[in-house]
Specification:
Elements (H helix, E strand, L loop, with lengths): L4 H7 L2 E4 L5 H18 L15 E7 L2 E9 L8 E8 L8 H13 L4 E6 L3 H6 L2 E3 L4 E3 L2 E8 L2
Parallel strand pairs: 4-5
Antiparallel strand pairs: 1-2, 2-3, 3-4, 5-8, 6-8, 7-8
Length: 153
């Protein structure tokens, strides 16, 4: 039985280095990150940290709207290992496994290389189910408790 078109669209992970992003992609990335981190979570920080230019950007669209996103930061920029950050999914599309799909895609793409993240502490069990292990005590970042977690295949 054929799947509905909307599910087919949601299953496609798009990956682009910064230089291949179109203006509309960048606009939607900043909009989604602003919606989730600034509006919902009330994290007041400068989102443009000049790491995006070195990253590969992973996202899923529903029709033409970006609904789930993360960036893969190369090793040596934030941590010695590769890092995943700015993981965000539109509220209307949560609990569908979209962010997990993006993270699993990164894990597959890195073919056994370790990944270190700075996770919001309340998401510890979420990242643990994806294979990440807590490697730090909690610390404050942008007014929210975080922990470092490491994926080490």
């Amino acid at each position: 039985m054929a799947r509905p078109m909307c599910l087919l669209m949601l299953s496609n992970v798009i990956k682009k280095p910064f230089e291949e992003l179109e203006a509309e992609d960048i606009y939607q990335i900043l909009d989604l990150r602003g919606e989730v981190f600034l509006i919902e979570q009330r994290i007041f920080y400068l989102d443009t940290d000049f790491k995006d230019q070195a990253c590969v950007h992973y996202y899923i669209r529903d029709d033409h709207m970006m609904v789930s996103y993360l960036r893969l930061i190369p090793a040596g920029i934030k941590y010695q290992e590769h890092s995943v950050g700015r993981v965000a999914t539109k509220a209307s599309h949560r609990r569908q496994g979209l962010a997990s799909r993006l993270i699993k895609e990164v894990i597959d793409d890195l073919k056994g290389q370790p990944i270190r993240i700075s996770a919001q502490a309340y998401l510890e069990s979420y990242y643990a189910h994806l294979g990440f292990k807590t490697v730090s005590e909690p610390y404050m970042e942008e007014g929210i408790e975080h922990i470092e977690m490491l994926y080490q295949p």
